[in-house]
Amino acid sequence: MDLKKYFTEQEGVGVLSTANSKGKVNSAIFARPNIDEQGNIIFVVAKHRSLENLQENPSASYLFSENGPGYQGVRLDLKLTSIVTDNEKIDQFRKENSGKLYERYKNVDSVLAMFAVEQKRPLIGSGK
Predict the structure, then answer these.
(1) Would 76 be classed as within a structural domain?
(2) Second label for 27, Cα 20 to 30 Å away, from 15, 19, 65, 88?
(3) What's the number of domains the chain is made of?
(4) Quick one: 6 exposed, middle or buried, by C-beta within 10 A (0-12, 13-18, 19+)?
(5) Mean pLDDT of the chain, nearest integer
(6) pTM for the structure as a whole
(7) Residue 65: inside a domain, yes or no?
(8) Cα separation of 78 and 70, whole Å?
(9) Which SS3 state, helix, strand or coil, does residue 70 take?
(10) Residue 92 structural domain
């Protein structure tokens, strides 16, 4: 599956789940991810619980449910590879990727979180 094409074409709802070092889970609604040329996932992550968890535990899961009938979508097992804290780079990324939401979120204290995709599975079933 070409994730860049998939997330460009599909509309739906995404949830990023993280856990701290003690295993306490947090799930939060997230936009569709951006995908770089190497296939890595990039999210703008506000400085809240998801980021705190990622700083303790780099593993995360992203679930995306497509709009429409039935249960179509994808689940991604992710591993945090880097965090960008440079505000100019974050703002530039937002300008290029947020569209109409740029003005709404431009002043939210955030980072860019880069993830490697460890596994892709359909929303329903094992994918095997």
Answers:
(1) yes
(2) 88
(3) 1
(4) middle
(5) 91
(6) 0.89
(7) yes
(8) 25
(9) coil
(10) 3-122
At residue 1 the predicted structure's pLDDT band, cuts being 50, 70 and 90, is: confident
Q: Are 64 and 32 in contact (CB under 8 A)?
A: yes
Q: Please give the structure tokens belonging to residue 46.
A: 């506000």
**28: in domain:** yes
Q: What is the dihedral of CA 21, 24, 30, 33, to 10 degrees?
A: 30
With the C-alpha atoms ordered 35, 56, 27, 95, is the resulting torsion angle positive or negative? Answer: negative
Residue with tokens 């936009």: 31
- The predicted-structure confidence for 44-99, as pLDDT tens digits, reads as follows 999 999 999 999 999 999 999 999 988 999 999 999 999 999 988 988 888 787 76
Contacts 24+ apart (CB under 8 A), 9-13: 10/64, 10/66, 10/67, 11/66, 11/67, 12/64, 12/65, 12/66, 12/67, 12/73, 13/64, 13/65, 13/67
| Element (DSSP H or E) covering residue 7 | helix 3-9
Q: Which residue has the tokens 């939401």?
A: 101
The CATH number given to whatever domain includes residue 69 is: 2.30.110.10
Scan for tokens 């993830």, then name that residue. 115
